[in-house]
Design brief:
Blueprint lengths: L3 E6 L7 H14 L4 E6 L1 H4 L6 H18 L7 E4 L4 H10 L5 H5 L2 H9 L6 H4 L1 H10 L5 E2 L6 H17 L9 E2 L32 H9 L16 H13 L2 H12 L5 H27 L2 H30 L5
Parallel strand pairs: 1-2, 2-3, 4-5
Helix pairs in contact: 3-13, 4-8, 4-14, 8-9, 10-13, 11-13
The structure holds adenosine monophosphate.
Length: 330
């Protein structure tokens, strides 16, 4: 049996090329080797009280972006969390073996309390319980997580173990972190330092048109040129080379590396090439995003198909849990 890999997707759209090369491209590859579940975590997003219009729009944007990038509803189970009511039912049960003390000690909860003291709702406290439910309900073996989610994954292991011990069963497998190893790339931003991120405003988005990509790349921070090509490269220039290595052919990269070393590099030329190579990858995706966003019928089919497959798997687990806990019909 192929191992089950599950990944949650935040329901905030507008993916940048950092998301694409850092995470999404690995997900797309993973579809051929694992039994993948990808879901849009719309219930989780309710902790911030989004207005209904935006709530729905965000799910649509994210779904269109992931499908356009190559997540395939035939290869994977792609679903929206709230369309699987079994998740909410298991979440209720899971809350019975999660303790307030351990939830209050979670770093992400403490951070939210500090940042948003006026909205410390119970959903925020039990966020890791819902996350564990998402994972355990499909008996996932592997979960790709970023650093900020490691503690939540550890809690999922604790909850799985606790249930197994409490009822003296070997029911839930303990989920492990999926490690992309050397495939993991960090895409730097265009502002000279640090990584590309949405809140940093230093990114190129999959929905950016050709003109926007060129304008952003041409404005990217560089330096005044290699004063001494043997000295270490400045960070902004190193960052541009890093993006070039990700999007361009080896020959192009070597050409500009040589130019840099010989002291004859013209950053304007390199940026023009970089923008063109980014566009080669992102523009076809952009076109598909727009197409999918305009096709509600297709999106509806994808969501219904995903819900059907996810519910089949979730209801099996839920039935098992309920039987173990002693729920019975008369
Ligand atoms: P975010 O929505 O910013 O939390 O990003 C979602 C995921 O995209 C992260 O967990 C990373 O795997 C990936 N990601 C985001 N920004 C970058 C980046 N600049 N370079 C590589 N991967 C990234």
């Amino acid at each position: 049996m192929k191992e089950i890999v599950l990944s949650g997707i935040r329901s905030t759209g507008n993916l940048h090329i950092g998301n694409y090369f850092g995470a999404l491209r690995n997900f797309i590859r993973m579809q051929d080797t694992s039994n993948c579940f990808f879901f849009i975590a719309d219930l989780h997003s309710l902790t911030t009280h989004p207005d209904p219009e935006n709530f729905h729009k965000n799910v649509k944007t994210v779904l269109a972006e992931y499908l356009a990038s190559g997540l395939d509803p035939e290869k994977s189970v792609i679903f929206v969390q709230s369309t699987v009511p079994e998740v909410s039912e298991l979440y209720t049960l899971m809350n019975m073996w999660s303790y307030v003390g351990e939830l209050e000690r979670t770093s992400s909860f403490k951070e939210k309390v500090r940042k948003h003291p006026n909205n410390v709702n119970a959903g925020l406290l039990t966020y890791p319980v819902l996350m564990a439910t998402d994972i355990l309900i499909h008996k996932a073996h592997k979960v790709p997580v970023g650093k900020d989610q490691e503690q939540h994954l550890e809690m999922s292991r604790v909850f799985a173990r606790r249930f197994n011990n409490m009822y003296n069963v070997e029911f839930f497998p303990e989920p492990a972190a999926y490690n992309f190893g050397t495939d993991l790339v960090k895409v730097p931003g265009l502002d000279g330092s640090g990584k590309m991120g949405k809140s940093e405003g230093n990114g190129i988005y999959l929905t950016d048109d050709e003109k926007t990509v060129h304008r952003k790349v041409m404005r990217a921070v560089t330096d005044s040129g290699p004063v001494n090509p043997d000295a270490p490269m400045s960070e902004p220039v190193q960052n541009l080379f890093t993006i070039l290595q990700i999007v361009s052919d080896g020959e192009v990269v070597r050409f500009y590396e040589e130019k840099y070393k010989s002291g004859g590099i013209r950053y304007g030329d390199m940026k023009k090439q970089l923008a063109e190579d980014i566009c080669k990858i992102t523009l076809p995706i952009r076109e598909r995003i727009l197409e999918i966003q305009g096709n509600d019928k297709y999106l509806d089919e994808v969501v219904k198909y995903g819900a059907e497959k996810a519910r089949a798997s979730a209801s099996k687990t839920l039935a098992g849990v309920k039987e173990i806990m002693g729920f019975k019909w008369f």
